[in-house]
Design brief:
The chain has one domain: 2-Layer Sandwich (Dihydrodipicolinate Reductase, domain 2). 30% of the residues lie in helices and 25% in strands. The protein contains three helices and eight strands, in the order αβββββββααβ. The strands form two sheets. Strands 3-2-1-8 form a four-stranded antiparallel sheet. The protein has a four-stranded antiparallel sheet with strand order 4-5-6-7, with no helix packed on it. The longest helix is centred in the last third of the chain and has 20 residues.
Length: 193
């Protein structure tokens, strides 16, 4: 693969979005087509990236990250569309998950809803109705890292899906490099793992 240097917006924002989608889909990206632009105050600094992604199982995705989109403060949205329904989560409203079904029904789940995972103590350091999610995510990550370190120090092999490996992080950098190549060459590019 050609030597490239991912842009700061890619390293800062796209890496988080890519990590989240890897985790949610359980699939690796296969190829992508990206455009990278500079709209902000510092011309020449990439601050807006659009990316179409194809995954190994045939799922397709659209990523958009920007540091020059006025009025969109931490406006991450994750929308997953399927043949039986869809899900929408918005970072600015982290307490709710909107589900839509193929029969036209819509449902909004929150931490107070009848759910299995969301009711676990791991996700409920505060009662429903209090802002939560961000602190819990980091607290859970630190707990998982500590457990894995204890296993490693005792000579056992850590096996925790919640913690990314060095190999996964290298794959993430290859994904970001491929975005830069695609944007420069203006074409679909296979991701070389």
């Amino acid at each position: 693969m050609e030597e490239t240097s991912p842009s700061l917006v890619s390293l800062d924002l796209m890496s988080h979005l890519h990590h989240m989608m890897d985790y949610l889909l359980g699939e690796r990206a296969k190829s992508l087509s990206a455009s990278a632009k500079s709209f902000g105050r510092f011309r020449g600094v990439i601050d807006d990236i659009n990316c179409s992604v194809l995954y190994e199982n045939g799922v397709s995705g659209q990523f958009w990250v920007s540091k020059s989109s006025l009025g969109n403060r931490n406006g991450m949205k994750v929308r997953i569309l399927g043949s039986k329904g869809s899900a929408l989560w918005i970072q600015n409203d982290p307490e709710h998950l909107e589900l839509a079904y193929s029969d036209g029904r819509k449902e909004i789940l929150d931490r107070g809803s009848i759910t299995k995972e969301a009711k676990l103590p791991r996700y409920n350091r505060f009662k429903a109705g209090h802002p939560a999610g961000y602190i819990e995510a980091f607290a859970n990550l630190y707990v998982d890292i500590a457990k894995s370190l204890r296993l490693y120090m005792s000579g056992k092999t850590p096996d925790n899906r919640e913690i990314t490996s060095i190999e996964q992080e290298v794959d993430r950098m290859r994904f970001l490099e491929t975005i830069d190549i695609s944007a420069r060459e203006r074409k679909w590019v296979d991701i070389i793992y």
